[in-house]
Amino acid sequence: MSSSLVAFKNQNYAELKRDCIQRRKLFEDPEFPANDSSVFYEEKPFGIVEWKRPGEISSDPRLFVEGINSHDLNQGDVGNCWFVAASSCLALKPHLWKKVIPDWEEQDWDPKHPENYAGIFHFRFWVFGQWTDVVVDDRLPTFNGRLIYCHSNSHNEFWSALLEKAYAKLYGCYESLRTGQTGDAVVDFSGAVCETIDLEKEAFCKDQGKQKNLFAKLLEVHKRGGIISCFIKANQDEFEFKLANGLVKGHAYAVTGVNAVRLGHGVSNNVQNESIPMVRMRNPWGKKEWNGPWSDSSEEWANIGDTERDKLGLIVEDDGEFWMSFEDWCTHFTDADVCHIVDSSLTCIQKAWNEALKFGSWTKHDDPVLNRSGGSNRHKTFLQNPQYLFDVKKETDEVLITLQQKDQRIHKKAGHGKNVFIGFRVLKVELNREKRMCRLRSKKQTGIKLFSDARSVFLRCNLPRGRYIIIPSTFDPGEEGEFMLRIFTELDSGCRCEVA
Fold first, then answer.
1. Residue of 122, 222, 251, 340 with catalytic role
2. 49, 62, 204, 396: which has the fewest Cβ within 10 Å?
3. CB of 339 within 8 A of CB of 193?
4. Which residue positions are annotated as catalytic (predicted)?
5. What is the per-residue pLDDT across 110-133, written as a single tens digit (0 to 9) for each?
6. How many C-beta atoms lie closer than 10 Å to residue 381's C-beta?
7. For residues 460 and 446, is the Cβ–Cβ distance under 8 A?
């Protein structure tokens, strides 16, 4: 993962702040002005938007009030529950949010030295393989004196609103955040590897063995600092439709806890040592909770002792956070994004990974030798796509592969912004191969990632020792675009740039 830092729009936070303090002027960002162009490109919000600085909204503005936690955020009017869910998860991970919000103590208001406040903040996002520093001024869109978009439960806390503004600037405007994937935002916050699990297709609700294995996996991801979110599929006319059980279709939820909860108080002795797999969820709306078993005031909590309740931090109020049994979670949710924080440092206590990070592009050319946009293997031009060699050096190694196309969201204002369908194939080849493959015959296919128009696709597989070629492609030949390929192995894979 690249550690270099890129200044978005070539704006240097330290220089801009220094200049504002010297001139005794509050920063006004020319790259993201306080006007309608920063709010929308198509659908104008209701009412007249008035831009206000935090000091005009609160007499005692703060970046954080009593620290940072997942209860700080509530979704506003932009319909970006996916972003707010990711931000709620971010708030639970100090090692992550301190990177996204750098120098947070220095950035905060200092009542003792108001002369040092310049109305400027900066946030960092992992954009297509590079950490990117985004500068914003503190003017926020309001309507009738209240923040229109993401806001905190505390009237004088502004970290979430400013973070959202920086993210909106990165992608063009607030309206560009109307739809998205929670996993994509988490990757932008962390450089994580996102694995999407189709709970419905895999039928976890019907298989206790698969449920047990999945819970163990999510518990491990959570312990290692990973981030998990989920949602219920919805048709176009079902988005944000509330079900009788309190859950909302087409709506992203943050998983804020994964625990095996011990039973023991208020039930017979034969369950003293039993435990039930459970997950804690948060609705970005800050309200509307699950009302089934293990909801806030359900009778099931009578089976839990006070010590266990305290350990779980159980809060009985309509704050958008609630518990569910893992069985119910598998039954009612259809998809989950599991974001692995992959550590490649030698000091990592758990498994350390070797990462091969390669950038490439699909480019079309009339000459088959030069063409690099061959489409899927349904087309005879498939092998004209970029090809990458890598080695598995252990007897058997767990390999993680993720292919990400360059995010098109930034082009929405120009009337574009749609992803193409992408996927890849992994093929086992001869140990001495150094050249491109020209034929598919007799080559052993190891892994296929079906095509998706998501920003990224992921594959986890166990591969035996040997040499492999991975072929990333678009579904249709002739489509162009940039991509980033990441391959994680326990031992260095020696991944080569595209072979000739």
1. 251
2. 396
3. yes
4. 81, 251, 283
5. 888 999 999 999 999 999 999 999
6. 18
7. no
Burial level of 168, CB count in 10 A (0-12/13-18/19+)? buried
Query: Is 495 annotated in the active site?
Result: no
Q: To the nearest 10°, the Cα dihedral for 22, 23, 28, 29?
A: -50
C-beta separation of 32 from 127 below 8 A = no
Q: Which of 74, 80, 259, 283 is catalytic?
A: 283
| 273 catalytic residue (yes or no) | no
Domain ranges of the chain: 5-190, 193-340, 354-489
Q: What is the phi/psi pair of residue 27, to 5°? A: -65, 135
Sheet containing strand 321-325, strands side by side: 193-198, 335-340, 227-231, 253-262, 275-282, 321-325
End-to-end Cα separation, the chain, in angstroms? 25
- Is 251 designated active site? yes
Give the C-alpha separation, 500 to 437, whole Å.
Answer: 9
How far, in Å, CA of 45 to CA of 51, rounded?
A: 14
Q: Where does 193-340 sit in CATH, by number?
A: 3.90.70.10
| Residue carrying the six token digits 């047990």 | 212
Give residue-wise pLDDT tens across range 293-323. 998 888 888 888 888 877 777 776 667 889 9
Q: What is the sign of the dihedral through the CA atoms of 106, 107, 108 and 112?
A: positive
C-alpha span between 82 and 180 (Å, rounded): 6
